[in-house]
Amino acid sequence: MLSSSVTRSGPSSLTLGTRGSALARWQTDWVAARLREAWPGLECVSQLFTTAGDRIIDKPLTEFGGKGVFTEELESALRAGEIDLAVHSLKDLPIEDSPGLTLGAICARADARDVLIARDRWTLATLPNGARVGTCSLRRTAQLLAARPDLKPHPVRGNVDTRIRKAMQGDYDAIVLAAAGVLRLGLDHYISDYLPLEVMLPAPGQAALAVQCRADDARTRELLQPLDDAPTRAAVTAERAFLQALGGGCSAPVAAYARAEDSRFKIQISMTGSIASVDGRRVIRVFGEGSDSVALGQTLAQQGLAQGAQELLI
Fold first, then answer.
1. Quick one: which of 148, 141, 150 has its CA closest to 125?
2. In CATH, what number is assigned to the domain containing residue 222?
3. Domain that holds residue 9
4. Does the annotation mark 92 as catalytic?
5. What is the pTM (predicted TM-score) of this model?
6. Looking only at Cα atoms, what is the longest distance across the chain?
7. Catalytic one among 29, 54, 84, 92?
8. Fewer CB within 10 Å: N-end or C-end of the chain?
């Protein structure tokens, strides 16, 4: 057993790659703590990386390529053997498998909703007519405008704390962020409104942490097994299959949220998917249930395409 080999050989170690933002470091520290709990004596060391998405902060992600802008440097370090694993927000990972790498663990999901942060504590319903709302996400823009066509979305970049500061300074009337990141950093007192899933579906994989490692690294894959949450993996796999079957990337106006229940016999998944025009005037929603994550995601994508989703994808 691996646990005995760890004990026999003394403290083994893993090097974890992470971006330098407060949220990325929190996520990596959280994974390291879970690893140490599962494998007493295991040493975890973090190594910081700066990605293209961190360096280019004056442009919306859609202007310089949304796929892999927060992950490419970490993946290169993995392949080179500089690190043993990389911790990502799953929604930032491209849907295509990266050559030579695998998702050794998908951790239990946090709150997948989006939230509104406004200095004057406005909710989506009480925002004044024509309010400036900060977001760089086409998915969020489309769904915001579907609910409130009068709103004026404007690009906002930066880490979670930077975006919150901009909202508190009045640069925007409100900003939209993922609840999980705000909660993980203990900044929930800034939240003025949790956006219901009926109004704002999340990005595929939102609020789930993915731990990436080399596909041929059997030792690290075994160390990661206790962190893998089967229902979360089933749910986000369905969401990502939906996005992939539509041919969209992580910046496309596509949203999806799945729930998976783990019974004694099999996992049952229910999922809602959405494709919207960026102006919010047209929204296609599909819903389905099944036990095969990939098949469910592909089936719902075909239903969306049959209703004209291709015309809305950019």
1. 148
2. 3.40.190.10
3. 2-107+208-228
4. yes
5. 0.90
6. 66
7. 92
8. N
